[in-house]
Structure formats: structure tokens, C-alpha cells
Write a structure and sequence with these properties.
Structural class: alpha+beta
CATH superfamily of the largest domain: Electron Transport, Fmn-binding Protein, Chain A
Number of helices: 8
Largest sheet: 7 strands, antiparallel
Distance between the termini: 41 Å
CATH topology of the largest domain: Pnp Oxidase, Chain A
Strand content: 15-25%
Amino acid sequence: MTSFEIKPESVIADEQSLRKLFSETHELAVQKQQGALDAHAQAFIRRSPFICIGTQNLVGQADVSPRGDPVGFVKILDKHTLAIPDRPGNNRLDSLVNILENPRVGLLFIIPGFDDTLRVNGHGVLVTDPDVLEGMTVNGRPPKLAIMVKVDEVFLHCAKAFRRAQLWNPEHFQNRSDMPSLIKMILDQSSGAPSDATEQRKLDDDLEEDYKRTLY
């Protein structure tokens, strides 16, 4: 694949040039932004089993990480404060290290079957308060820490993106077997996957067993 070159004349370099491409922001889109978690936002969060959290380090390198757990896993401590349990993962700690360097975080709350989403922006801090962590225990295991988010902005996001993607429509679901397994793709990208099909199946089975052992 040849390297793609961006045409300099096609680059949007300032906000004025950007806004010329679009119509005026609808007044309701401005008014919907809230500074705290109202009853509707809290109800949305309590129904959500899945979020994406966006972070950046000091030099602006960005990361988006998925977080999932039983419905309502993100705890509402008050109308300005959320707590997100940190479950076992790959120990890269990308989001956590970013928060230590730059506390600004963005959250996207998703509910299966809902096309609309909830966006929350704020400041994150990593906490080990036992009173907070104990309320996040699953299968007898509390998290090692939680990401506490002080809320700055809250607003509901419209359904257009999810409807364009047909995200919840079973007719648009793709067959996972059309692509290699996760472990095979990672090995292809790193040390190399085994050519023997039996050995590959064992690696796939081992990964599934690891999921069962280390979800919490």
C-alpha cells in the first residue's frame, strides 16, 4: 500500500474556516449542555453496562479505552461526581497513566438497544478509598482502584451515528469467524502465530480460560 499524502490546500486549519462548512448550531444543541448530573443523566448512567473513556497525556497523545461491567457499574456519588471501577486488564495502564499526567477525561455511556448516548466531560483522579471500592465488589473482588470523575459537562447525544451504523440491527451483525482470532492477530503482529491449526486452537482455548479466571 502506497503512502497517502494530504493535499495542503484541503486542510482545515482554523475554526473560522471549519464553521463556514456548516450551518449555525441549533439553539437546543447549545442549551442541552448541563454542568451537573440531572435526573435524566443519572437514570441513563444507572442503565449503562458499557462506557468508552478518552484521555490524553501531557503532550496530547490520545487514547480511548472501553470499560464494561454489570448494568450501573459506574457509581453516582453526587450530582457532580462519578466513580468508575478499574478491573483487571493487560496492565498497560494507558488511561490511568494519562490521567496522572492530564486529568481531563471524556466519557461516552452506551446502553444496548439505545441509539442515543450520554457524554460526560470532566477531571479524573485515581483513588483507593475503601469506602468507594467496597461498593464496586463483583464476585467477592473489589477493584484495586477507581477513576473518580468530577463532572464539568453533561449532555445527551443524538441517535444519528448509531442509526447510520445499524449497530443493534441483527441483520447487520458480522460473522466473527470471518477474521482470525484475537490471539492469532496479536501473534501475527508480534512474535508470529503458529502454523499448526491444533496449536492455534489451544492458544484460543487458553485465552478463553484466561477470560474466565481474570475478569474480576
